[in-house]
Predict the 3D structure of the following.
Amino acid sequence: MTSTLKISALTKTFAGLKALDAVSLTVEPGMRVALLGHNGAGKSTLMKIVLGLLPFDKGQVEVCGAAPGSTAARAGVAYLPENAAFHPALTGEEQIGHYLALRGESPKGARALLERVGLHEAAGRRIGSYSKGMRQRVGLAQALIGRPRLLVLDEPTSGLDPVSRRDFYELLDGLAAEGAAILLSSHALTEVEARTDRLLILSKGRMVASGTLSDLRREAALPVTIHMTARNGYAADIAAALPGSIRFGADLQLSCSQEDKLGALARVTGLGDRLADIEVVPPSLEDIYSHFSRRDGQ
Amino acid sequence: MNRILATALTEFRIAFRNRWVAIAIGLMALFALVLSAAGSAPTGALGADRLSVTVASLTSLAVYLVPLLALLMAFDAIAGEAERGTLPLLLTYPGSRVEILLGKLAAHLCVLALALLAGYGLAAVAAFLADPGAASGLPALFRLGWTSLLLGATFLGAGYALSALARRPSGAAGLAMGLWLGAVVLYDLALLAAVVADGGGWFTTDLFPLALLANPADAFRLFNLAASEATAAAAGVGGAAAAVPLWQSALSVLLWPLGALALASAAFRRVTP
Ligand SMILES: Nc1ncnc2c1ncn2[C@@H]1O[C@H](COP(=O)(O)OP(=O)(O)O)[C@@H](O)[C@H]1O
Ligand SMILES: [Mg+2]
């Protein structure tokens, strides 16, 4: 199967600052790929290059088998900009109707599209009166026009509340199931975790990690923490029995690597009824994300 | 073609909502009525019908007002999209940048045409009321109409070019006003000063006609006045107008819109959103 998006060794420099440094990635049809990184990591720059809005210095970019920004590429690619903006004097329906016409479709389809993103009630109101989340939905509606082969979504969930976010990912699941390739960006791993097939982490323009969530979890090999609560008076005993543990009053914490996890647990359970409770806390998504995005000396 | 139409429709809608249509029509109607009232002296002495005289005054009005209206509508066209943040998305859609410009041009020309229709129409009605023989001035009025649209297209194109160069609406507005002042007001003053200083020498005979043709506003005035000699006499610029053959001013009036659009498209192509 041919990739919908193929990028190899892409480099882009802004006045001496390397915004992208030898970045390579591919997105296959039906695949949802999340691009993660702090502000300024280069996510928007990469997307603008894919869309043909920005020129680049080195490397190859192939979009739907064509050059980025070419007629063939633009016909197959939909874009949701970082802060979706529209003319405030137009209604949602008029704006989407305009975009439909630009893609050679009938403007009459605007209402149906707005309904798909839950905006049917406000369709006849001017966009100037919309909230940020509503503008984001208008942006999403225009990205759905004409069965795009590749969707490039820049921080698509940033203005959405958690419920809308879930609806949004359901919409993406449907599109991916129909064979669309999806590249979306986010500055938080927690927003995208289970809803994407692949995660790419950018840090200062360099790709520092890529893979599924479990790949990243394994590669990061961050310590597991065991939280313990001692029965009355036993806290000091337990601290003595478990070298390396940290004590806060009746609560204790022990960190250990993934491989040592079972051994440590055996020692902890060996303490018997001196313990009131234990809890094993795996590294959080934020921990994993910080691990990769800070590795470059931040 | 459909994309140009769609852009034109949306832009016209925006111009209508932003009250540009009302402002343009009101402005043209007001000035045309003031001119008609001011020029209501008996016309028999000049040997021209009433409408021809009105067209001569409307020409002087249009030289200032049409470029102004065109630049006011055009300066925001690209800089406004860039500032609002709508430009990057628009440029990822199929279709070329020239199509975007042509769509905006069609909408803005429509607004201008409505304003001209209101202004010139009112002035014509006033002329007919005062002089039943005004019908002989209709060809001149018609000529004024289509050349005004071409003059408008020239300054719309120039406005788009400035809008693309400036990238920000405030800067584009400044540049547009500078262009208006320079091309419509200062240019003529400078030529006049040069002619006076020259005292009928080489500049006046050789360079002056070319300088008039090089400026779209002057070419517009030359063409309209030269095309109807009677009104040229009435406006007192017969000398300058007579020195330039009609085909030359017509060519300038026809070529300028194309040149301005080429400039706009070159400037727009260089914009990186
Ligand atoms: N047009 C530009 N001119 C100069 N520097 C830019 C431009 N666009 C982005 N940058 C710089 O490139 C880096 C990456 O920016 P960006 O791609 O917007 O990051 P992200 O979307 O991940 O937050 C930042 O340091 C930013 O300042
Ligand atoms: Mg960004």
